[in-house]
Input
Amino acid sequence: MTALTLSTAAVPGLRADAIVIGVAKSPKGGAGLVVAPGAEAVDKAYDGRLAGVLETLGASGAEGEVTKLPAPSGFKTPLVVAVGLGAEPEKDESYDAEALRRAAGVAARALFGAKKAAFALPLTDPADAGAVAEGALLGAYSFDTYKGAGADKAAKGKNGKAPLAEVTLLGGKPRDKAFKAAVERATAVSQELNRARDLINTPPNDLNPQSFAALAQAAAKEHGIKVQVLDEKALEKGGYGGIVGVGVGSAAAPRLVKLSYTHSKAAKHLAFVGKGITYDSGGISLKPAGHNETMKCDMSGAAAVFAAVVSAARLGLEVNVTGWLALAENMPSGSATRPGDVLRMYSGKTVEVLNTDAEGRLVLADALWAASQEAPDAIVDVATLTGAMVLALGSRTFGIMANDDAFRSTVLEAAEEVGEPAWPMPLPEHLRKGMDSPTADIANMGERMGGGLVAGLFLREFVGEGITWAHLDIAGPAYNEGGPFGYTPKGGTGSAVRTLVRLAELTAAGDLG
Output
């Protein structure tokens, strides 16, 4: 993991491989490029002509743009990296935290192979320092477990280069408690989010329900989190028909992991529930070629919940947080659940399985009912649940459904605060009828149109009466099949981790809506 420190050192005498500065577009169509605050010493060394030099090199200040140039004479750092921040803010306004986060991420990605970089981006307050720290740490992520061997392994990463090893944030105040806290928070959350990315990127021959559960147990022990794991025998004996029914076709048996973080001063209790299908073939309703190659990512919801609970523990948040990881592998075999089978769920309801590829809602249903038995103040489930949500919102935005409009707004605001694109979605009552079954209490499929909303309505059936609940369908942003952007890498992204952590923080502060 990239190391991170705060510093007030003078830029010219700083020893590093590069200095990162920000540039922006002039507001309201103004002419020229604007050098952002934090880069004053660099601009001065260019006799105040840094903006002109960068423009000559083609820089425009656009978000995500990177321009490299030699450092001025007298600097001990050889390279200046100018990263675009987008439009310059209006007078008396500061740069948006997400713009800083993305710029830091872009710079970190551009500096793979470097050992140390000093980030001289605009830092007006501790929140800005936290945003830059988070962006740099997330942007420097690389998943290299399966690349290289022996001595060559450390050199692997982006184009064979190791991630940026050390980041120094200039302009922060190392002795200021608020700045230190912001950077410590960013470090903890980023480390756990990157752990979630590692889990998502791990191939399914190495990550199955048992190994995922073992990793959760190890992390729980390290961070003082109570953990309980139900194996296949305990699940069957306990009547968890959804989880057992999905996992019964695989040689890798299912697990239900319960992670419990508690604080002595907590007044509220949150439950997070994650879909953890470590590989989804579709089961007997087999996915066609072209739709199963990335299905190792179908446990992204469980990874997000795992990371959020550990983050809450590391931050010492004054809120009780319980994480439920519903882990199974969905495979076809002679013992697999068939279309037409009826499962008796943990809640006692029966479900007619019309499509075994709609398996995520089955494992979530059992975990939601288990979470409901503890009567938490709110439940949030996270899942790569439906392709319909990707069609509706694209590959970078997750949908939020809830049984309470105010709580849905709270979750949306939490996502917006941390820079995770999200959108509120309805639960239209008329779609519920499509899941009526002549054989069971409910079917696991309904109308094709609005499939993401149908899935939300199905899950609502398994939330305890009177409990506030929200459902995050992260099918779009959980796994980036395109090129990296901002602080988001190709592959597993860790979507929803920061939203869950922010929600826990708001709850600890007494701001749960």
